[in-house]
Description:
With 133 residues, the protein is an all-beta fold. It has strands spanning 7-11, 16-24, 29-38, 41-50, 61-70, 76-78, 81-86, 95-102, 105-109, 114-116, 123-129.
Amino acid sequence: MNREIKFRAWHIEExxxxxxxxxxxxxxxxxxQWWTPSDIGETHNRKSVMLADGITQQKEIELMQxxxxxxKNSKEIYEDDIAIKTSMAPGGTDFxxxxxxxxxxxxxxxxxxxxxxxxxxxxLEVVGNAYEL
Length: 133
């Protein structure tokens, strides 16, 4: 089974979401990338940030891993996204929660309960994330 491994990052100080180009765990760096509109289309931008300060362990970013799943609108589902799982089964119930990875698999969880994220019969929709409320 092939699964795409990728991350995005919430920059804590800038309060902005970035795509992660690369991670270097030896030097504790993440290279972030983004595109900005320009006269000739879009300009590709990059910058490196520390995953954690070596002395205080203060983080610049929060990393979120891609779950390998997309929602009903083909939007990629990442850790810390807020999603609604709509039941398509008769008598089923809808469930809203945050995407988390625990016990070896992806879950949608709220303060009361948790359900396994993967589903063949329910519909998933990302409605936000834990940082951009």
